[in-house]
Specification:
By secondary structure, the protein is an alpha/beta fold. The chain contains five helices and seven strands, in the order βαβαββαβαββα.
């Protein structure tokens, strides 16, 4: 009989190309999540995904990259595990379904689609540096606040 999962899986989503400010936020989010014992799930490529995975690695945590193509060698070098899917953008569904909650950093249509899917599934979503608005999307000003809000939501059954 399998035991109850106690580790939180948090998706960190955002653009495959990130401005330095967004990359710095993603790095800090990854580091903070690793320090809190969460497993980070991401799309496995560059930009926000790479910066978050680097933060996780440097804090000694675990990250999983769910890749859009069949070649695991395209993954960023900071991931603990890679899952090549060959699903293209449909891998966004796998990322969101694999996570208990989501932190969105910057990004565009792909990020919005992942956040919207997570919200539709009733999963908490906290956004950093986003200019778009979705109902029930919680905004945070700092990486620490984003992680704190999200982990509190997971333990209390949802965002305020």
């Amino acid at each position: 009989m399998p035991g109850k999962q106690t580790t939180s899986y948090v998706a960190v989503i955002g653009g495959g190309e990130a401005a330095p400010e967004a990359a710095a936020l993603a790095y800090e989010v990854g580091r903070e999540l690793a320090r809190k014992g969460a497993v980070v799930v991401c799309g496995g490529l560059g930009g926000v995904m790479e910066a978050a995975a680097r933060g996780v690695q440097e804090a000694g945590g675990v990250s999983i990259g769910i890749l859009p193509d069949p070649d695991r060698h395209r993954a960023n070098p900071y991931l603990t595990y890679t899952i090549p899917t060959n699903l293209g953008h449909a891998r966004n569904m796998v990322i969101v379904h694999s996570a208990d909650a989501v932190i969105a950093i910057d990004g565009s249509y792909g990020t919005i689609s992942e956040a919207a899917i997570a919200l539709k599934l009733g999963k908490p979503v906290v956004a950093l540096q986003n200019t778009w608005s979705l109902p029930h999307l919680q905004a945070a000003k700092t990486p620490g606040e984003a992680v704190s809000l999200l982990l509190k939501a997971l333990h209390n059954g949802g965002l305020p």
